[in-house]
Design brief:
Blueprint (H helix, E strand, L loop, with lengths): L1 E4 L5 H11 L7 H13 L3 E8 L2 E13 L4 E11 L8 H15 L4 E4 L6 H10 L14
Parallel strand pairs: 4-5
Antiparallel strand pairs: 1-2, 2-3, 3-4
GO molecular function: N-acetyltransferase activity
Protein name: Acetyltransferase
Pfam families: Acetyltransf_1
Length: 143
């Protein structure tokens, strides 16, 4: 298995994962491409893929920020997804382990994430990994 940091050339692959993760959204590919470039250019963001035998099996994206809530540097994992056909084979753990390594290297106090209510299988994974339910997530769309 190989972790590979995302590059501009990987956009189509990343976009495919983004669409699979949030199937209830409609995406303007040109807008997402701009966001993707901004993520790659921002030193506080990360995006990477997991490959097995040369084939992509997962994607993860997140950001680092300071928060009073967790008393300092925090890692927010905003996207983590593995291919449907290879779930429960340890790929999600590999992605999360690498995100954790990045967070530890930045001296983060915690990793946080949110997950859509219907994603019960993902919730089980997070709890097995060691995450605790600690909040509800709310959104207020502005556009």
């Amino acid at each position: 298995m190989e972790i590979r940091h995302a590059t501009p050339e990987d956009f189509d692959l990343a976009f495919d994962y983004i669409e699979k993760l949030w199937t209830y959204n409609t995406y303007d590919k040109s807008v997402i491409k701009k966001v993707y470039k901004e993520v790659l250019d921002n030193e506080n963001d990360f995006a990477f893929f997991l490959f097995d035998e040369g084939k992509p099996v997962g994607f993860c994206h997140g950001t680092f920020f300071n928060t009073f809530w967790l008393s300092g540097q925090t890692c927010y994992v905003s996207s983590i997804i593995t291919n449907q056909e290879v779930r429960k084979k340890g790929y999600g753990r590999k992605l999360m382990d690498y995100a954790k390594e990045l967070a530890e290297a930045r001296n983060c106090n915690a990793i946080v994430l949110d997950s859509g209510m219907p994603r019960e299988e993902a919730h089980q994974f997070y709890e097995i990994y060691g995450f605790k339910k600690c909040a509800y997530c709310f959104e207020l769309k502005l556009h």
